[in-house]
Amino acid sequence: MLKPFKKEGKWGYCDEHNHAVIPPRYALASRFSQGLAAVAVLGPASKAWGYIGETGEIAIAPRFQEAMDFHEDLAAVRTEAQQANGSRWGYIDKSGSLVIPPLFDKVGEFSEGLAVVWKDGKAGYLDTEGRTVIEPQYAHADPFREGLARVRLADGAWTHVDRHGRPRNPQGYPEAESFSEGLAAVRPSPQGGWGYIDPDGRTVIPATFEKAFPFMEGRARVVVGAYPHGKFGFIDKQGNPIVKPRYHEAEDFQHGVARVKFLGGDWRHLDSGGNMLIPASHRDNLLFSEGRARTLVDEKWGFVDRTYAFCIPPRYDEAGHFYLGLASIKLDAGHPSDGPDLDMPRSEPIRKPRWGYIDPHGAVAIPARYLMAGSFSEDLAAVKVHAWFGLATKWGYINRSGEVVIKPAFDFAYPFAEGLARVNMGGHSGRTGGVQGGRWGFIDKNGKYVIKPQFEYVSWFAETLAVVRVGTQWGYIDGKGAMAIAPQFDEAYNFFKGLARVRIGDQWFYVDPSGKKKPLD
């Protein structure tokens, strides 16, 4: 389906990939409907409307003052009438012939074989042959939907009429919506709430809502609390709550997804069961680990599963990836308990441990008792705690049961790789979040130094070698701390499949574990 686009003040049409199909050359353009689109071209004194086909050919020459889309093979157009009191609306067929004369002040598009027309300030209905089916008598009239149309009576009340103009409720309602999916939202009394009726006018869902909206895909938006400051939720056709009223804004379901948000928050996406999910347009950047991917909503972290539905709601200030069945999380500053719903973003300062670990179902596996917590690797995780009677903070390591297996003694600590973990002594946090100063070394899983802290920087071990910095040069050490490749590089990266990428000056190349140079492919 082609869609209109604007460029340099002119309108044209593009495809779903935004590639121009019909160049921009029209003053105005509407969407395609039934193979034709209304377009306006500049005439000597004003715009003239006509219709084009999907290849851009003129189907109906521009000669109308206004033009609507085709529906049920007819389109409403405004043209000069013979009467002295100016132009009127009528209808044309796809050949451009006027099949219903221009006799009306205003008109609507055909729906279910009938169209709303206005004469002398009153609305009625006519059929596709131009015959008046319901005389103009209403203060307002909507298109027919599901055999009924919402109209406003002369006294201001709303009701629904059938194709013969017979009202379902002659007295009407103070407020009402059109029928959708077999039900219509109505407000039976001025001071009462909203509910839903069936096509026979019988109450199906009691009037208990502050505001109610039409059903879409089996779900309807409803408001609880003083509208427009109440909270939005969703119900099914039996009136059962599908999404409890808690959102400040909400949109109808489309293609199984509805958008909702809290006051000042981001738009969230719900499936038809009320479960939060990630829409297709936001899925490309998700990184899955053990069937879970962390994602940020309203400045809170949660996790989605492979169906892109939230299996762990967004309620954490920070979160790591899942490894070995556990993920590190930082609890909300204002709500240090792991509550089920955290509606609003918060950033209250707190000076107590808030890091812990959860399992893939969101249950607490290790309580929040750490100042910081890293991901598990090789059955251990680095954690930061208070030490020396609270006078300092140090890093140590715990197992998956939360037991301390390496006492906190390090200024910084990183995950284990190939049986060794890099640790820092004497360093401090830099302004950009990195580690400044101190010396780096490696410990084993007993907490003993295998390589004492002596390097300005070290990477993790990869393929038995680790990158180290001595002064301004980079080299490689083995698992015992011996230099395998002497420091000589201006940049150096970890080994992968037997090669490491390095740079000397402006020259990039590979080295093998013996230090032999190899050109980049």
In short:
0% of the residues lie in helices and 52% in strands. It is mostly beta strands.
Number of helices: 0
Fraction in beta strands: over 45%
Backbone structural class = mainly beta
How do the strands line up in the largest sheet?
31-32-33-34-35-36-37
Rg to the nearest angstrom?
35 Å
| Average of pLDDT | 91
Number of strands: 55
Please bin the fraction of helical residues.
Answer: under 10%
First-to-last CA distance: 45 Å
CA-based shape: elongated
List low-confidence stretches: 335-350
Major beta sheet summary: 7 strands, antiparallel
Write up this protein.
The protein is mainly beta and 521 residues long. It is built from no helices and 55 strands. The strands form 14 sheets. The chain has a seven-stranded antiparallel sheet with strand order 31-32-33-34-35-36-37, with no helix packed on it. A four-stranded antiparallel sheet has the order 4-5-6-7, with no helix packed on it. It is elongated, with a radius of gyration of 35 Å. The protein starts with a strand and ends with a strand.
List the helices and strands and how they pair.
Elements: E1 3-7, E2 10-14, E3 20-26, E4 28-33, E5 36-42, E6 47-52, E7 58-64, E8 66-71, E9 74-79, E10 88-92, E11 98-104, E12 106-107, E13 114-119, E14 122-127, E15 132-138, E16 140-141, E17 149-152, E18 158-161, E19 175-176, E20 184-187, E21 194-197, E22 203-209, E23 211-216, E24 219-224, E25 231-235, E26 241-247, E27 249-250, E28 258-261, E29 268-270, E30 276-277, E31 288-289, E32 292-297, E33 300-304, E34 310-319, E35 327-331, E36 355-358, E37 364-370, E38 372-373, E39 381-387, E40 392-398, E41 404-410, E42 412-417, E43 420-425, E44 428-429, E45 435-436, E46 439-443, E47 449-455, E48 457-458, E49 466-470, E50 473-477, E51 483-489, E52 491-492, E53 500-504, E54 507-511, E55 517-518
